[in-house]
Design goal:
Strand 1 and strand 2 form a beta hairpin. The protein has about 170 residues and is mainly beta. The C terminus is likely disordered. It has two helices and nine strands. The chain starts with 11 loop residues before the first strand and ends in a 13-residue tail after the last helix.
Length: about 170
């Protein structure tokens, strides 16, 4: 009995090779056929502008996708910055511009991420925007593999296994 080819749909584990470029064509990130990004389709594990474009693709299919900021990491919010005193950091802490910090929000109790956008004489400018906020993203994608997610993966909301990436914002 002939099997119909499987196409990207909700509740399937998608193994995706990709190259992500900015507007100037510089490579921002990539994953090859041998180490693809794996995620469960339809759960918002990747940006909506890319996830929406994958529906219906079969294994081996390739596509170029352009994602506007609104469907990616959102517009850049200039108000989402803060200035912190250098005294807040231990003296032996090696701060660098561009580095990611995980900060504890005392009001909410949540851990928030911020990037060091500028180091001044006695203060640090923290940027709470995603580093790709406000950027148009250019993806070249290839579906490397598809399989149904296991009940356990669906219950836990993520892919299990040796090749699962958990950086699929």
């Amino acid at each position: 009995m002939a099997q119909h080819p499987m196409a990207v749909d909700d509740d399937l584990v998608v193994s995706l090779a990709y190259t992500l470029r900015d507007d100037e064509g510089a490579v921002i990130d990539s994953a090859g056929d041998n180490d693809p990004l794996e995620f469960i389709q339809g759960y918002g594990h990747i940006i909506s502008g890319l996830e929406d474009e994958l529906y219906g693709m079969e294994v081996g299919a390739e596509k170029s996708v352009v994602v506007a900021p609104e469907d990616g990491y959102g517009p850049y919010d200039p108000a989402a910055t803060d200035v912190a005193s250098l005294d807040m950091f231990p003296p032996d802490f090696d701060l660098e511009e561009g580095m990611l910090l995980e900060l504890h929000d005392e009001e909410s109790g949540e851990v928030v991420e911020a990037y060091v956008s500028e180091i001044r004489e006695d203060e640090v400018v923290l940027d709470f925007n995603h580093p790709l906020a406000g950027q148009t993203l250019h993806f070249d994608v290839k579906v490397v593999n598809l399989r149904p997610a296991t009940d356990e993966e669906l219950d836990h909301g993520h892919v299990h296994g040796a090749h699962a990436h958990d950086d699929a914002d």
